[in-house]
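REQUEST ID: PR-0412
SUBMITTED BY: lab tech R.K.
PRIORITY: routine
TASK: structure prediction, single protein chain
INPUT:
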Amino acid sequence: VLSNHAKEEVIYRDFSRFPLAHRDISLIGPKSVSYNDIEIVLAESGKPLLVAHELFDVFETETEKSFALHLSFGSADRTLSGEEMDEAFGRIVEAAQERLGFRLKM
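STATUS: complete
OUTPUT:
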């Protein structure tokens, strides 16, 4: 219950003085893939610039599933360039394709 969580160490960090940049993404692929699988790919391929993600839509057909997400990118020491954003976004799309069989939904 609550006492189980009391032992967890809480780590605080300062807010970044630099703005976050946001992009939405919609990925579509095999119905068998779970959102947890998507989160793992995001965490690993979005490093170090992906700081947050939020699922806002799931749609399923008989054979496929699509996930739509808000992605937030940022850095603690600078404002990100468009090229940095494109590179991080590309890594995420590529990893989703290679590891999960998902593609960018247009």
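NOTES: The first helix runs from residue 2 to 5.
REVIEWED BY: pending
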